[in-house]
Each structure stands twice: as structure tokens, then as C-alpha cells.
């Protein structure tokens, strides 16, 4: 079975069970975070949202997470593509007016310079390699267009956690041992975690997420190099969800202070963040 087939089986099952939209990235705090990311990006590049959001293509759109994020900007045109029909059916029920197509993001059925923004969320780790998709995103983007990708599992975070869990010293302050064990279990046995929750075949799940299964995620520097090699002129990286953030949810103000502080340290703190997003400008 190849990666695409594994994805169709897993995402088809999740969509039919009505479980997909219960994924953590649909929680209100994450939706607020992704919305604020776009506002910050437009401010930083001094772009008005309308200059970028006139024509949007969403890769691996699933049930329409990115449409939910961007619809407040009055999108002129939004096209979602996915390889799993059942995910698109859920999306169609939620947003009957948008344009959805079955297509493989590694071989897009659109001509060059068609879109002003290409998005993909919780997607790049479901591919054997992100390179073909980066090339395709570049090809279909107009000059000055933007490729956004979000919720990319950060391999540096995984390696950081592994070395922490192998550390033999005792620590004067350490309140997060339980969290560490849980993260490591999910990292090594994500298939088993899903098998337990939904009765899935663990091997198929592992096959649907080759970047997580084989490499513990993607490396930020590899992603930057791949984007630049394909021709993107500017790449902005945004790490998100620092280790232990979920435990601070009861104190949102405290969570924001820690989050802003860690992010202000730039590349120095990036191994503390479980995921990263990027904006790449053509
Ligand atoms: C984890 S889901 C993300 C869905 C949505 N973007 C979200 O954030 O909720 C990954 C989606 O990518 C789709 N997918 C996987 N490989 C694909 C490919 N090569 N081309 C298009 N879609 C793909 C899957 O069918 C699935 O719907």
C-alpha cells in the first residue's frame, strides 16, 4: 500500500465516523492562533489581506479547516483539493458554495501563475517528501504570491525530547515528567495511540504519516532550504505549541506571556516547539 492509499483509508474512516473535526487543531485557542498568525504576517510584510487572498488554493483541504480560518477575509475565490472523497463530502456539507476537487497535491491540475496564495495545514508530514508539493505550490503561484503551511511536526522538538528523556541526571525543578512520557509514547507509537482510540490498523496510520514515522517530523532548516532552492525569495518561520503549553491552558494570560517570550528568542528556542508553520513569498 502506498502513502496516498493509506491516507485515503485513514482520513476516509475519520470523516465517516464524524471524528475528524474533533482533532485538537480545531480547538478555539488554535483557531485564534492561526488567525493571528495571518494578521501578523500581513502586518509584517505590509500587505493588505486582499492583495494576497484574491485566489486561494488549499492543498489537502480535508473538511475545510483553512477555509474556516480565511473566510473572515472575504475570499474572492477559494479552491480546495484533497485525495479523500469522504473528507471533501464533509467539507461540502459545511461549506456548500466553495469549489472542491479530488486531486493529488504532488501533481496539480492547474496552470502556472493561477493563485495568489496556496495553503496547506496539517499536511506536509503526510507526504513521502514535501519537495514535489513545494515545487507545485511555486509553479501555480503568481509572482509575489504566498505559500503558507501550518502544523508541521518539528523534528528538532522530537530530538530534544528524546535527549531529555535519556538524560540520567536529576533535576531540581521538573514538573513535566508525565508530559514528556506521553509525548514520547505518541512520537514512537502514534499508530498504537490511534488504534486504541478508534480501532484503526496502527500500521496504516504510521504509513499515512511517513515524515513523522520515519523522521520524527521535518527539520526547519531543511524546509527553508527546499523552499529557497525551488525559488521562494523570502521565508518566515513561525514555531508554535511549546512543550507543556496544553498544561497552561487554564491560565491563558500566563500561556501568552511564555509563548511570546519563547518566540521572541527566534531560532534559539525553536526546539521547544512541537510544530512550526511557514510563509514563503514567491
Ligand atoms: C491531517 S488532514 C488535514 C486536513 C485539513 N487541511 C485540516 O487541517 O484539517 C490531511 C489531508 O491531506 C489529504 N492528503 C494526503 N495526501 C494528499 C495528497 N498527496 N494530495 C492531496 N491531499 C492529500 C488527506 O486526504 C487529508 O484530508
Which properties best describe this structure?
282 residues, 46% helix, single chain, Rossmann fold, globular, 12 helices, alpha/beta, 19% strand, seven-stranded mixed beta sheet, binds S-adenosylmethionine
User: What is the strand tally?
Assistant: 7
Kindly give the count of domains: 1
- Tell me the strand order in the biggest sheet: 3-2-1-4-5-7-6
Strand % is 15-25%
CATH architecture: 3-Layer(aba) Sandwich
Biggest sheet character:
7 strands, mixed
Morphology: globular
Secondary-structure element order, as H and E? HHHEHEHEEHEHHHHHEHE
Uncertain stretches of 5 or more adjacent residues: none
Structure summary:
With 282 residues, the chain is of the alpha/beta class. The protein has 12 helices and 7 strands. The protein has a single domain, classed as Vaccinia Virus protein VP39 (Rossmann fold, 3-Layer(aba) Sandwich).
